[in-house]
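hi support,

uploading two proteins for the ticket. first:
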Amino acid sequence: MKKKIVLVSAFLMLLLCSCLKADEALPVFEENVSVTVPGMDREVTLLWLSDLHIAADSAGFDPQYSGDIASRKQYSTYEAVSAQQQWSGKNADYSWESGWVQVLNRTEADAVIFGGDLLDYNCPESVDLLQDGFSLLNKQYIYARADHDMLPTYQADPDYQAAQDRQDALCKDESVMSMDFEDFYLVVWNNSTSNITESGLERIKQLAAEGKPLILATHVPIEPLNDNSLAEASKEAFDGRSLLWGYNSEYWPDENTRQLLDLIYADDSPFVEILCGHLHFSWQGMVSPHVHQTVFSPAFSRYMGVIRVSG
């Protein structure tokens, strides 16, 4: 099946409608993607938001990490947990609940994909902030976790099970999650900073067997077969590390992930587009001769993806 994928990058386009007052919301920047699914007679709009890195002051911080925490403010969204605290950090004037959630609610999108690293570290205060925003969201959404969402970093007494329990209680948290849009499936590889589980791989195979095109959402990008520009850009940004899933990169696949890569790279791949984040910069290109990939800029810099799927 032929798949036509067209990427239209539109940086610095304001999302806000002209009818909104300037003080009702702050502007964000769109990265627009068009995905063609043959046979569709309507348009589905998906929003992508990843790498927000919400960071709340935590009662459980170990003081020895205060310097590390301060150094991360350049690419985190720091939030006060009470009215008495002062805002700090890069996006002090554009928080999760009072900024991003309102922007998302004002769109007419069909669903929101939260593509991982919404949290900078997993502590009760940060998870509570995230939940407060989710409770106000008027869109259906799906949340792909990544390592920052899961790990109780900087805590004096890190409880990894408690951190997992907080995520499990937040919203659906399975190895692979999906949304059925009739003409295609949105498939989410959850916690893709780790290899895909056997059950997750089987779920993707089951969805692929139905014959509908698949759009894959994953926090960590996939290594392109015949284009090293993404790997080189990652190495430049991350001290020589290619932070991709592949055979020449930082994330080395086990047998389950190898099978997933085989599905992606295959000539008859069920995938029509891969959506991802993680790298804190934007990129678009072909993963294989048949599958396109979009890497979105981070939400902590006020970027979000707008994916329009049509026939």
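and the second one:
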Amino acid sequence: MFTGIIEQIAEVVKVESEGSNVHISLKSTITSELKIDQSVAHNGVCLTVVKINGDEYIVTAIKETLDKSNIGLLVVGSKVNIERCLKIGDRLDGHMVQGHVDQTAKCVDVKKENGSYVYTFKHKESDNMTVEKGSVCVNGISLTVVNSKDTSFSVAIIPYTYEHTNFHEFKEGTVVNIEFDILGKYIAKQFMRDL
């Protein structure tokens, strides 16, 4: 379980395929605090640390993960938002995030406003949805939805988030991971069942 509050940006230093799996080596200043078998969210995708070597660590993505997320698009030099799992007893600053990406979305518009940025994302039609002022997780970042539509939504980004996550690299066409709000998913499923 995560909160969607990004701890830092890690850099991909190696990508290696093995069968349908991909092993990703990342460099991070918190690598020394990680342990093997620990869950870490990478652009919102929960992946297990399988090896640690100095300031680098390795995670493995399987076919299901590669099919539903942007993890398969990572290359050497890619910047990845990372967050360690929620510690019981800590404040929940974001919202409840599982690290289970529902689908990808494409950035279709970026507007610089007076002191902030507004990004618009388009996604496939889904039983899951966004709601105005509800929560959504974009590349692992807990955000508030504005301009909610059936297959698109926008988020307003403050300068801190822009600078301390990989949002500063997003442009039109960037593919991001989306995790819809877990409470909304349960409500939508119950509603569909009741029809």
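thanks. also noticed: Residues 8-84 form a domain with the Elongation Factor Tu (Ef-tu); domain 3 fold (CATH 2.40.30.20).
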